[in-house]
Amino acid sequence: MKIAVVAANGKAGQLIVKEAVDRGLDVTAVVRGENKTVAENVLVKDLFDLTAADLAGFDVVVDAFGAWTPETLPQHTTSLMHLADILSGTDTRLLVVGGAGSLFLDATHTAQVQDLESFPEVFKPLANAMGNQLVELRKRDDVNWTYVSPAADFQAEGERKGEYVLAGEEYTADANGVSALSYADYAVAMVDLAVNGGHVRERISVRY
């Protein structure tokens, strides 16, 4: 299995690369500059400059792109649509590192986590931007995409337990009402999805 991880130098990207390499998969890290991952195969190229030829032959492409400043937040959508365009009509699966703010609160799908009064104001622009990319992705029936939302408490430095729970579009929590997950175990889930397939054109979620 050949996997490309786009924006591999980010926190999530590096851990997804490591998880895949540790399992013996053929992994290519796609980075803009110096490779900070453990991957031996590296493609140094800006995401927006990637072509269909660059990603030809990969079974799975993982989009780990993230933007944080007000001027770059719209790139969550534009970068994802660029990847969708160059993968359009191929068998390659596109797995997207998504956000938790767009998870629905119940089965009516009328309200989202980011609509809660308790949702931190500082994260709302990011949640909005990542929610918008999902809206646009849902319109693509020409790409084998899967959008993977993490838990509400997404822990960058959390330990790797090697366990997780896959859920659907609605926000869920454990028996104690906690929705948490480490980046490392998100990487475990992402590589499992890459290997096992399924959930094509679906948004799913991952938590402990």
Automatic annotation (TrEMBL):
Alphabetized CDD domains for the sequence: BVR-B_like_SDR_a
Domain of life where this protein originates: Bacteria
An MF annotation (GO) of this entry: oxidoreductase activity, acting on the CH-NH group of donors, NAD or NADP as acceptor
InterPro entries membership: NAD(P)-bd_dom (IPR016040), NAD(P)-bd_dom_sf (IPR036291), Polyketide_Oxido-like (IPR051606)
Domain NAD(P)-binding intervals: 8-191
Signal peptide residues on this chain, from the entry's feature table: none
Name under which the protein is recorded: Dihydrodipicolinate reductase
Species of provenance: Bifidobacterium lemurum
Phylogenetic lineage: Bacteria, Bacillati, Actinomycetota, Actinomycetes, Bifidobacteriales
